[in-house]
Amino acid sequence: MLPVVVVHGGAGHIPKERSDLSTSGVCSAVRSAYAVLQGGGSSMDAVVEAAMLLENNPSFNAGCGSVLNLKGEVEMDALVMDGKTLSSGAVSAVRNIANPVQLARLVMDKTSHACLTAEGASQFARSMGVPEVPQESLITEYSRMRWKKNLAPDANPVECQMGKMGTVGAVAVDTDGNVACATSTGGMLNKMEGRVGDTPCIGSGGYADNMSGAVSTTGHGEAIMKVTLARHILFHMEQGQSAEAASDLGLAHMKSRVGGLGGVVTVDPQGNWAARFSSRQMAWAAAQKGTLHYGLYTGEHFTQIIEDAH
Ligand SMILES: NC(=O)C[C@H](N)C(=O)O
């Protein structure tokens, strides 16, 4: 059963013309992360690899391709958590870097803190030699178009939000049985400047504990925070539920209690995994025992032998 890695490319409604890009993006990220695990890398190495590749892919709402805030600027959130030690690192409202997930890992590895925000996070990035990138390099035509559309007086903000949720995340178990999670996002379209979502908050955007498993979440951040979705799912696993049943229970609770939609990828330390969502779609992919699994719509589950995958 080990190793295993599962990634998501955000819960929401993916326009038809963009769905192939989302699927191919999560599949190639999961293949690279799986290669890291097969090469003896840790679950932390694997989830950071997957999240970084998805941040670099402009089809997703993380790193390059992030949605814009009300002012038309990019502010990103990211989180990593290590299930062996419960160490975590996060950044929120960070600007001008290509890979927030890498900076989150540096917060975990190099500071005694769990989260750095805004200008302080940028200063830390500089001190670690992380290159600063111009904001323009993180903005795509598509995200600028959607930002403008959402500012129009007749805009339907709910519909626009669902058009591209696109947060990215991963969970993995390595051959030593250690679990880890990573999540990275540009947040919610046309958010207020300084808005911090669920993604960098442990228990909400993700959680990893070798005693129960690991979860990375996506969806409406304010709803996810109200129910601390990731920790809620692991609670159900601690009570004996499977990764799949616990994920469904957590998502159903969020829907009935606060009307929130979203999606999750979940693993337990034995390598059982789930990719579940209450939104219309969620691009997801998993790799285990030489097989690639992936899907986009509810109930969809394709498989492919990894050696044959191109
Ligand atoms: N697309 C998402 O998953 C958005 C993210 N959860 C946020 O609220 O910032």
Automatic annotation (TrEMBL):
Question: Top EC class per UniProt?
Answer: hydrolase
Q: Which CDD domains match?
A: ASRGL1_like
What superkingdom heads the lineage? Eukaryota
User: What one GO molecular function would you report for this record?
Assistant: asparaginase activity
Catalysed conversion reaction:
Cleavage of a beta-linked Asp residue from the N-terminus of a polypeptide; L-asparagine + H2O = L-aspartate + NH4(+)
Record Pfam families: Asparaginase_2
Provide one Gene Ontology biological process annotation.
proteolysis
Q: Keyword Mitochondrion: yes or no? A: no
Keyword tags: Autocatalytic cleavage, Hydrolase, Protease
Residues annotated for substrate binding in this entry: R195, V196, G197, D198, T218, G219, H220, G221
Which residues are the active-site ones?
A: T167
Transmembrane region positions? none
Q: Which GO terms describe its cellular component?
A: cytoplasm
Tell me which residues are marked as the site Cleavage.
Answer: G166, T167
Extract the InterPro entries matched here: ASRGL1_meta (IPR033844), Ntn_hydrolases_N (IPR029055), Peptidase_T2 (IPR000246)
Query: EC number(s) per UniProt?
Result: 3.4.19.5, 3.5.1.1
Task: Give the UniProt family note.
Answer: Belongs to the Ntn-hydrolase family.
Stored PANTHER family: ISOASPARTYL PEPTIDASE_L-ASPARAGINASE, L-ASPARAGINASE
Q: What is the protein named?
A: Isoaspartyl peptidase/L-asparaginase
